[in-house]
Structures are given as C-alpha cells and as structure tokens.
Write a sequence for this structure.
C-alpha cells in the first residue's frame, strides 16, 4: 500500500477554534461528502420508513419489470422491489463497513503503538507478520480468510467484519508504529517514563494523542474502501448470502437481466458508488484539516 | 555499500515470501472439515478416505508436507489438483499467461493515460481541465472495479456492441481479434490503476514545477509542455514508481473481480473457482504467485529508487 511510503509529520495540535476556522477554508467537495454520508446514515436509520416494500417480499411486481413510479429501479427475478432492497442495503453496508474498519483500526493502532514503543522482539514479530499480510492483495487475502473459515461461516456478518479488520490492522499498525517511533524520542515521553508510567499508559496518554490525526485520516481512507470490499466479496459470492440486500450481491444476482432491465444492476451500483464517492470526498476534506496528504494505491 | 543494501533488501523480500508461504499453507490446512471427506463426498468409505489421504500425503505431519510443497514450488511443481487429475502447474501456467497478457495490455494503456492527464493537470493548475481531471479521478477511485466493469459492459457490449461481453480466447486467431477480446477488461483495469497514478504524478509534478530550475527553464523560453516533459517529468516519475509497482502487482493479483465479470480465463477466475471447489493446491499456488509478484514489484521499485537517488543509499 502506498500509505507505508508516506512521510508522516506529527500533527500540530490545534485549538478547537482553529479547526473550525479551517472548516471554512475546506473545499466544497468535503461538504458534499459530509452531506452524502449524512444522507446515507439517515436512510439507514429510517430504512423501514423510506422503503416502500420489504427487502425480501417476493412478487410485489412482475419479475424483471421495468422501472415505474411504484418501483423506481424495477423488480428483480423474484419480483422483489429493487429500490427497497437498495434502501435496506444501506444498513448492512454502513454497519459492516464501520464496524470492520473501527475494529481493524483499534487493533492496528494498539499493535502499532506497542510495537513502536516497546521495540525489540515484539516489534520484529509484529512487523514481520504485518508485512506478510500486506504482501497479499486485499481481495485475495479476504478470499483466503473466508476459505479458511469454512463453509459454515459463509455469509456471517461477523466473518466479514473480521476480514475487514484483519486486512486493515497490519496497514494501520505500520502507520501507528512510524508515528510512535518519531514521537517517542521527544522529551515529554522521557518525562513520562521518569514519572514511572507504564508502557501501556504512555501509549494511551502520550503517544495516542500525537497519532490521532494520522489515524483519523487512516480511518477515513479505510472506511471509504470497506464498502467496495464488501461489495466485491458479495459480487464474487463470498460475502453476504441471499436474501441479504447487499449491493454487490444484488448486482451479481441481477446481472442476468442486464440487457432487459439494466436498472436492477445500476440501482445498487449507484448506491454503492455514491457512498464511496461521499466517503472519499470527506476524506479529502479531513486530510486537508489534518494537514496530511492522502496518497493511495490499489491492492 | 550499494550492493550490500541491495543484497539485504533482496534477502528480506525472500524471507517475507517464505513467511507468506507458511501462512498460506497453514491457513488453508486448518480448513474446517477433512479434505478427504470433502473431496470424495459424504458417502465415501473410511477405506477410500485412507487411500486418498495416503495418495495426497495427508497422513504425514504438517511440517513435512510443507517442506515437500515448498520444495516442489521452488522448482515450479505445485503438486496435483484435487478437483481434476491434472498437475497444478499445467492448470495455472495457461491462466497465468492469459493474466499476464491482459495485464500487459492494461499496463500499456495505463502509461499514456497517466502521463498525459497528469501533465495536463499539473501544468494548468486550477484550470477547468485540472479540476475536471481531479474530480474524475476522485470519482474514479470511488467506483468499485466490478461496477466499472459492469457499466462498460452495458455500454460497449450491450447498448453499442463494439466489444464482446465475454473474453473467450479459444476462438481468437488473429492479433486484432485478441485485442478486441481483451479490450473491455484491459480498459477497466487501465482506468482503475491510472486513477492512482494520475493523482500521485500530479502531486509530484506540482512540487517540482515550483522549483527554481523549472523557473529558469521557463525563463529560457521553453513552452510549458516542453518544461514539463524535459525537466519535470523525469524527476517526478521516481516517486510515482511506488504507485506503479503497486499497480503492476494489482494487475496480476487484484484482477480477480474484473476477470470474473468478463469470464476471462486468468488466474483470478481460477482462484475463485479453486476456492469454490476447495481445491487447496490450486489456491495455494495462486496466492503464493500473487504474493510473490507483489513482493518482487516492490523490491524492484525499491532497488530502482536506491539506484537513482543517492540520498537513499546512506540508510
């Protein structure tokens, strides 16, 4: 991942008012991003009120019917309302993306902080392990984990959360470690050591605040990619299981109807793309506030 | 000094690859359920299972099996497929060739797209063109590849049938036919990867375009395109190499989804069917190759960086 090659500058501690001041200089894309995300959160919370039909009720419309006033995106093969399924899908995707990213980030920053601060064999072991995991591309690693978990776990939301966390944790750990190493030679860390604080408490009270800006951007970048990961796995048939209204799965289910009713595919696709666009726009805004450029690559 | 650094980098890469192989082997070995009963079906007798285990050497301890496997892998022998009687190497080599073909085509599209758009963007900063390109790349990196692939499929294979919707390679005889069959997946991959390249190169170019020697070149009377091409690009390429290495690695390994959309017979599709069939040797081999490519591309980018940047040699 390109993130590893970043030069990480420690974040300047900014007063609240300064942060608010910077909000004013933020690019409009950041506001658009925030608005899109808020819209999704709103839709996820009130999905049951917004969706005209249930996500699993079949034959509410003729199978594969065209978009109409009652069925904005038409109906799928089983006559389910695609629009309602897209709406309900927001819940699933948002929840899993956030939970997985958060878990990966917490795990990763904890390991990274400890690795950078304690050093020695712990550092060696953790960094070798993370390097191994990073050497396997996202999707491939996800597929291996899902295969290793076995058919019994397939479609389990907890497995997907775990997959996202395992993919993100080593990458986050390396970032947190880099920040920690840069910071840990500073005087206030020595002072804390002289006060007799334990490694854990130094990590939490002295190092974490210094790394928080970097980690925030990291969270935003990762959260932006999590829906893609969930969608890709669903599309390949290794993610959510029917009748879960997950967008990637819906796209793969409705692909047979791509010629006759393309909106059954484009609808969920649009929902997924717009969410990721929103998250990425917001990330750009956050990274400007924090003063760290986001550089990324695929894999 | 340089040689020592290069040697240690290469050694570290090999160590990582060995660890990767262990992790893959162990992870897929602890697969829940017995490989024998899974492959022979529920109604297999104990005797059949025992014979199967013996044939596949499953009765030996794991470290022995690992050593046999990795020893074979080093010589290009990945054992036998569980789902067919063929050797893994014979199954994979064709698929690997197909994926390499696709990746090469995509990469050849990637270079001009990235260079041209990044230079336009960086030399005309904050112009309409720059803003459009910035917005498009940001949107581009937000669109999952399977979605982009599906949209291109709808547009260019269904609505305007310019390209085939499935990349069947069996009937391909001439080179133009091959290009047509590869076009849609290659274009998808080129777009997905160049989005990252453009953003990276643009940022690097802007930094360099602000330096003094560029100002002098401009004062000499060179056109902005000449300044960019002759003075800025050579210096901006280097930091972009890392992203390009990642892109290359991605082209080999991350193509799983794109290959799947176009039913392209590459290692990505093979990996997915290997996992569906629980064909462990096939999966192990593909993951190892993909990780190897990733580690190797990064090593190349590193080494190249060290060779052309004296600053990096001191560490």
């Amino acid at each position: 991942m390109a993130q590893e090659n970043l030069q990480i500058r420690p974040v300047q501690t900014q007063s609240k008012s300064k942060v608010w001041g910077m909000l004013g200089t933020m690019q409009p894309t950041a506001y658009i991003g925030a608005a899109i995300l808020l819209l999704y959160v709103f839709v996820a919370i009130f999905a049951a009120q917004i969706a005209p039909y249930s996500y699993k009720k079949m034959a509410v419309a003729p199978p594969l019917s065209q978009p109409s006033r009652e069925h904005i995106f038409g109906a799928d093969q089983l006559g389910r309302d695609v629009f309602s399924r897209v709406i309900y899908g927001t819940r699933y995707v948002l929840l899993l993306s956030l939970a997985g990213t958060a878990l990966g980030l917490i795990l990763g920053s904890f390991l990274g902080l400890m690795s950078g601060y304690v050093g020695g064999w712990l550092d060696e072991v953790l960094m070798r392990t993370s390097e191994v995991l990073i050497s396997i591309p996202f999707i491939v690693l996800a597929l291996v984990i899902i295969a290793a978990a076995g058919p019994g776990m397939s479609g389990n939301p907890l497995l997907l959360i775990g997959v996202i966390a395992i993919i993100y944790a080593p990458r986050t750990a390396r970032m947190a470690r880099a920040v920690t190493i840069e910071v840990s030679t500073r005087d206030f860390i020595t002072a804390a050591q002289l006060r007799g604080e334990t490694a854990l408490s130094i990590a939490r009270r002295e190092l974490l605040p210094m790394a928080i800006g970097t980690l925030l951007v990291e969270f935003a970048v990762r959260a932006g990619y999590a829906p893609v990961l969930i969608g890709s796995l669903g599309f390949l048939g290794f993610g959510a299981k029917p009748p879960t209204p997950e967008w990637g799965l819906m796209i793969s289910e409705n692909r047979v109807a791509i010629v006759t009713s393309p909106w059954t595919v484009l609808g969920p696709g649009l929902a997924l793309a717009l969410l990721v666009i929103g998250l990425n726009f917001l990330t750009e805004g956050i990274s400007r506030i924090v003063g760290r450029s986001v550089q990324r690559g695929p894999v | 000094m340089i040689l020592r650094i290069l040697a240690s980098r290469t050694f570290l890469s090999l160590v990582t690859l060995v660890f990767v192989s262990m992790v893959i082997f162990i992870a897929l070995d602890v697969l829940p359920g017995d490989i024998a009963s899974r492959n022979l079906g529920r109604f297999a007798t104990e005797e059949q299972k025992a014979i199967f285990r013996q044939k596949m050497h499953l009765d030996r301890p794991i470290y022995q099996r690992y050593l046999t496997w990795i020893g074979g892998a080093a010589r290009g022998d990945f054992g036998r497929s569980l789902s067919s009687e063929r050797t893994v190497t014979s199954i994979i080599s064709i698929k690997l060739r197909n994926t390499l073909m696709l990746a090469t085509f995509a990469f050849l599209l990637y270079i001009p797209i990235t260079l041209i758009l990044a230079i336009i963007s960086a030399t005309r900063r904050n112009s309409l063109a720059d803003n459009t390109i910035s917005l498009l790349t940001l949107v581009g990196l937000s669109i999952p590849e399977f979605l982009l692939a599906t949209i291109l499929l709808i547009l260019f294979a269904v609505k305007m049938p310019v390209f085939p919707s499935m990349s069947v390679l069996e009937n391909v005889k001439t080179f133009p036919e091959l290009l047509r069959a590869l076009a849609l997946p290659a274009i998808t991959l080129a777009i997905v990867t160049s989005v990252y390249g453009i953003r990276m190169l643009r940022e690097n170019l802007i930094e360099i375009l602000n330096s003094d020697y560029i100002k002098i070149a401009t004062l000499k009377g060179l056109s902005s395109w000449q300044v960019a091409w002759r003075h800025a690009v050579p210096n901006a390429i280097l930091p972009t190499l890392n992203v390009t290495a990642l892109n290359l690695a991605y082209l080999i390994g991350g193509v799983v989804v794109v290959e799947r959309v176009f039913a392209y017979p590459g290692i990505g599709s093979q990996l997915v069917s290997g996992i569906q069939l629980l064909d462990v040797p096939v999966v192990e081999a593909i993951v190892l190759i993909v990780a190897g490519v990733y580690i190797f591309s990064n090593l190349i980018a590193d080494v190249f960086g060290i060779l052309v940047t004296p600053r990096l040699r001191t560490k």
Notes: DSSP finds eleven helices and no strands in chain A. Confidence is low (pLDDT under 50) at residues 1-15 of chain A. Residues 18-297 of chain A form a domain with the MetI-like fold fold (CATH 1.10.3720.10). The radius of gyration of chain A is 22 Å.
